[in-house]
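Can anyone check this?
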Amino acid sequence: MTKKLIIAIVAGIVFPLYAIAGQPSAQITHGPYLQNLSEDEVTVVWTTDKPCKSWVEFSKKEAGKSFYSQSPRKAYASQDGLYCVDTLHRVTVKGLEKNTTYFYRVLSQEVKELRAYRPVMGSVVSTDIWKKPLTFTTLDNHRETLSMVMVNDIHGNNELQKKLLGMAPPQDFDMVLFCGDMCSHINRQSDIFTSFLNTSIELFAAQKPFVYARGNHETRGAYARNFSRYLAGPNGKFYYAFTYGPVRFIVLDCGEDKPDTDVEYSELIDFDSYMLEQKDWLSREIDNPEFKNASYRVVISHIPFTKGGWYGSERLRKQLLSLLEQAQIDLMLSGHEHAFGFSDKGNAASFPIIVNSNNSVLTLFASNHSLKVQVKQEDGKILLVEERDGTWSLPGGWVDVNQTVKTNTEKEVLEEAGLEVEAVRLLALQDRNLHNRPPYAYNVYKAFVLCEIKGGSFRPNIETQGSAYFALDELPPLSEDKVTREQIVLCFEAVQADDWVVPFD
């Protein structure tokens, strides 16, 4: 009898232990990535496939010392005295020293059963601290310089995101800004990560935070109302302000581009009221001493405050422009239009507005004495203008008697494409009748010139009705009496070659 009882007890103990041990542990599915970095804190975000209790371990990175040279500190996600149990984890690490680099790792422990008494806990999963330790560096708001890179409107095109950030690697800059519409819509959690976040984490976001300005497309979809849990500012909103070196940034939440009553939204949005909420906040922000004392004040808005835009742009102008002009803003950075645009101060507003396209990367450099912006176009695109008959050609025209090839090129691009450019290099010189049809009764030489964009945006005119950038494999119908595919190919080859020799007939 005793023997049978022992066997029964052993069997009863072994089976449940085996069942628990045999179950797969929780896994980190996305992240970590960094948000809302300041002088003394940072928020770390990641997801798991099962509900977990989660925390961050961190320690100073010092010369010759490892993560465990000192006992790491811990920070937990908690609310109302309870550690959070969830699949999305946001842990704010506080009490940091400014301008200091820290090792960190994230840890999650599965909560198998959240009983009222004695919850059932699973194993702990964490990021690696040995082979590839993660780090972050806190800010110094009194530093004298700032460098920033900005991308926008990729709409889930990860390859485009990689190309653009390859032109201006985030590791070479202090700050990364995504100016909206990185997603086309958000129907589920995975849309956020597959659109751009996974690529961002792969490239830089586990060790360098990015700033996010919500675009109008990111208000759309079944999961859009959860977007703030992943990317909101330090106040839990998509409108906020922060200081980085000599610049005070104001990030605005632009809302949708059409009226709230538009049939597309099925009476499910209220951005008219939301804009009044932002207006109240902005009126307080511009009285903030930190705002007033900044060397430069830069506004970020996905939809630009330009004249003649859709309802969303006009709503922004009506509710917020007067406050911004009162506050003596130095610059506005925007996206949304999928084309480069520049509005100088005194035109649409008392401050300049730069609209970055979806195939270019914008870089900003600031010191206490200067603010400089550069825009680099994605390789493999060429500017064409749309003729009145619907065909496309390179901007150009006859050289006037009082112009040089250089000055006339700059004049024609301004007239036909609305862009201020500098003609920098001759690419080819051709006898037109040898390359274009039909032949003329007289000889004409065509000069192909490389230009750098300095500003401006397309304006309809008597010669052209549109402009756009095209890759070689997506050329529209061409006005072949002016330009052929072979001539465009020649331009691509000239720009890509390091030792180009100018061909001439």
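Reply from J.R.: I decoded it. The domain at 28-137 is CATH 2.60.40.10 (Immunoglobulin-like).
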